[in-house]
Amino acid sequence: MTNFAIFASGNGSNAENIIQYFKDHKFIRCALVVSNKKNAHVLERAKKHDIPAAYIPTHIFRENPEEAINTLEKHNIDFIVLAGFMVLVPSAIIQRYPNKIINIHPALLPDYGGKGMYGDNVHQAIIQANEKQSGISIHYVNEKYDDGQVIFQAACPVSKDDTVESLKEKVHQLEYEHYPPIIEQAIEETRSFG
Ligand code: GRF
After folding, report:
1. Which ligand 1 atom sits nearest the alpha carbon of residue 10?
2. With CB atoms 3.0 to 4.6 Å apart as the test, which of 28, 33, 65, 78 could cross-link to 90 if both were Cys?
3. Which residues pair with 132 in a beta bridge?
């Protein structure tokens, strides 16, 4: 079995979609959900599906990442999936999981990425700039926000009538469709190449 952890800070609709996709998978298991927010809805979603859930406060990630790594090792985590995780992943974790951490960003990187470009801010900026399209980017995680190698992108049209809410909905649909199989593919690659 390859065990992965999902890191999320908020609602966790992607997290739940991923949990469902891997529920009966033969060799890949969602073994842990981690949140830096004690009351994040994602922790409830994990419990509903009998997935272990851990609250690791932001200051632990920033000041004592070894403690976070201990939790991951206790659960035999081999791979990390970020889904709406609002903390910069510390380099100690990146070094412990080289090319084994991926993130999804709700826009077509390298545009509309980087510090401050998260959640509704991204959709707002795209609408304000009258962009004709947006989409999703799935990428490996390095020490900078939204900067690692892009693995996959999918686009959707942005119309004049789109609002932050309607664009967010379109982007979420792309996320639900594409993130689980790309996670599967990325994990399969680590299984073949070590
Ligand atoms: C998603 O749009 C994801 O791309 C971004 O944060 C959002 C999380 O949404 N990084 P949810 O919590 O999965 O509903």
Report:
1. 12
2. 65
3. none
113 touches ligand 1 (CB under 6 Å): no
Nearest CA to ligand 1 atom 7: 84
Q: Give the domain ranges of the chain.
A: 2-104+138-150+176-193
Q: Measure the CA–CA gap between 53 and 32, rounded to whole angstroms.
A: 6
Specify the CATH architecture of the domain 2-104+138-150+176-193.
Answer: 3-Layer(aba) Sandwich (3.40)
Which residue's CA lies nearest to atom 14 of ligand 1? 13
pLDDT tens for each residue of 29-66: 999 999 999 999 999 999 999 999 999 999 999 999 99
Find out whether the beta carbon of 36 lies less than 6 Å from any atom of ligand 1: no
**pTM score of the predicted model:** 0.96
Beta strands in the chain (DSSP E): 2-7, 28-35, 53-55, 79-82, 101-105, 133-140, 150-157
